[in-house]
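does this look right to u?? sodium ion version
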Amino acid sequence: AEVTLRYNQWFPSQHWSQKDGLYKYFEEIEKVTEGRVKVQPSAKPLAPPTRNYQAVVSGIADLAWGPHGYAPGAFPLTEMVEFPFTNIDAGVSSAAYWRAYEKYFKAAGMHDNVHTLAVHVTSGGNLHMKSSPVVNPADLSGKKIRVQTSVVGDALTTLGAVPISGSLSELREFLSRGIIDGTTLSDELLTGFKVDNYVEHITQIPGGIFTNSTFVIVNKDKWDQISPADQKAIMDISGEKLAVRMGSLWHENDVLARAQLKERLGENYKEAGEELNAAIDKAFEPVRADWFDKAEANGVDGKAAFDFYMNEIKRLNSK
Amino acid sequence: MLEHGPYTGFLMSMSLLKVLDYICSKISMLSLVVMAGITFADVFGRVFFNSPIGFAYEVVGICLAVCFYSGLYHVHKKRKHVKIDLLEKIFKGKTGIFLAWFSYIIEVVFFSALVYMVYIQAKESRLFGDVFMFLGLEKWIILAVMAGFAMVALISLLVVYPDNNQE
Amino acid sequence: MVMLIAFLSLLFLLFIRVPIAISTGVVGVLGLAYYQGWSPAMSQLGMIATETVLSYEFSVIPLFILMGNIISRSGLADELYNATHALVGHLKGGLAITTIGASGGFSTFCGSSFATAATMTRIAYPQMKRFGYSDGLATGSIAAGGTLGILIPPSIALVFYGIITETDIGKLFVAGVIPGILGVIFYVAAVLFVVHVLKDKCSDASEATLKEKLLAIRQLWAFTLLIFIVLGGIYFGLFSPTEAAGVGSVGAILITLIRGRMSWQKMRDALEDTAATTVALVAILIGSLIFANLVNVSNLPFTIVQWMESLNLGLMGVLLLILMIYFVLGAVLESISMLLLTVPVFYPIVEGMGMDLIWFGIIVVIATEISLITPPVGLNVFVLKSVVPDVDLKVIFKGVFPFLIADILRLALIILFPALSLVLVEMM
Ligand code: NA
Ligand code: NA
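got this back:
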């Protein structure tokens, strides 16, 4: 191959997101460039997940996939897709996200120092409880719930819960020993991380109580080494196509995990009612208001971008 | 051990070094106390009052960083980095002195590079804009503190001569 | 070829007494510069030097070391060993056996080999010296006992393995129980061999009277209380094993304060010691991670896999080859790096040959564990060395040798009888 791209393999290589998602995409890159561009995954992480993006900027890795949220504060614009209730089908939301990125975020300088192959979302998070169900907002009162981000933590505090921050590697200990009463995760992550047997009650939040935003990026210098024709060939299978490929894969596996959880939990797997949804929506109000300010500070009309994103989702869903 | 400085002009800077040594050693010990204390307080608050300290995790990480980089001064000064002494017979006489200098120079070069790169990390992080999520603190500030301590530790390495018969 | 040069220059630097942290770091950066250019190589130095120390996961190291330091300076350790000595002191090697047992006990609430070795060094070494044990036996039993931390659940290594291979971590933990107990038994046998056959120096006290025994046991309440706080807290779900280190440190301080056994001076010494040990260990960790990145970037793991596939060996042949690779890599790499580097490329091979991944996990973790005590880079040995700098490294490695043999025998047993790892899992 003329150009070999080193991929930062920080996520388990046998996970479906890699095996059935990115690796298939890498094979297609090789095919459409007739072998002139190859992607080589690393045996272990070249950089910690928190520095995924910077590793590509500085050339430690040439290609990386990962969540924006691992570098909190660095990508304020992406927080738009993390709002609750926006992500019923990660494939659809990912398509809308890519369009919003192209139309609003790219121009504002997001991802300026890399070449972006795709941005997409992963499946939305639900409330996973160890032993007590959450039906009404009051059920959350005093419950210790592990959160991934301070934004979700703040919202849960408003609802009377006690947010616990903790590393994902300790989640198992926290859940199995009852240090926490529950956690906010997507269903596929719950089963994927093999902690589902500690959860007895699940309240599904339609569209997710939160969502993760992720990127697929390439080092700029490396990208420039690829001929314009091959660059075009690669972009023809990237962008929205890649976003939908990854998002849909997530949705498929989330649906599988949900079926598996529903089978085991029966009616202990329930959908959140209107009252709970309204309370959550209200709890996130300050976060949304805050984001519009951040967007403005970053030179983006937040209202327009958010409306565009929601409309695209609606439009794609009605198709 | 090594109370060096045959040059009297060194005296002034020596006392400055002593102050640095004192400060670094105190900070390193303090960060350990904070690390243990905040973990304890977090658990205590969570178990008895249902009010954990959200940023405990981040503080513990920062404490480890501060403990390491401020403690580096002392370890450099006493040349306490772990090394392998399986073949110490060849370290007698001239060869020994030569190898000690060789090793010392490699050490100095490596740590100079490390100090510089930690500084660069701080600079890049400032542009990147990442923060400690629960503390809300900008990450570059901590990285800059780390670079500062690393710099001070490098100075302590520079004023220590390679010593063939140490420990 | 480049990697051969890298390995050789690393060994050269190590043998001319360049500190381990610097040897691995320098060779790592130079090698990375060869493969990726200067700028990415230097960035990796900066990234690893900052991200390693900013991580919560590694904080368990200083906290457990601190707890050990306080326990050993407050008289708690003296009481523990006085009691043990009263009970088993008349048996040859009794304290070394106690050390193995205590390490095993400590491993049930500590997932890290580092921390187990560091804590036990602080507690056990001065005591064994007090009762006239040779340096070799004292340090050997501590370094070896420390490796139990990696296999007896909870285990950081098994968690990593489980995540990489997508095997059930709970099942892995259960599978580790019998091999872990076997480890304790084999180590005890090694101690007996050393004192009875090699006639190594150890205490030769006469048996204590019943009254002396009871008196000694009564003194144990403070230590028992601390263990109860730490272990009880974990099992009743009050805190996680990582947090236990912090709670245990503060608990140890409080208990000794209440009993009036803690002076300002002792506290300062404990903190100073902990800081020095932490710095030395974290520095090694940083160097080792940089070198691991070089192995990673060089594609050596994939090259090895291709070579193995071309040999067309049976499962046992492949397994032996993998173990040999672990011994070679284990000479210079730190255990978690080694695991992260090798497991992703090896497990698809053995899985394809029909091997049970839980069984393979136990084998891999024991192999990694062995690397913790093999020269030249045996991290447990360095933990010891950094806590007791006066003991010659040669003496420690020599003292470790009988335990190494015990480990290899145990590994052979586990490979020959898969049931040892799997029988409890099947009963689940
Ligand atoms: Na353990
Ligand atoms: Na080794």
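Residues 10-49 of chain B form the longest helix (40 residues). idk if thats expected tbh
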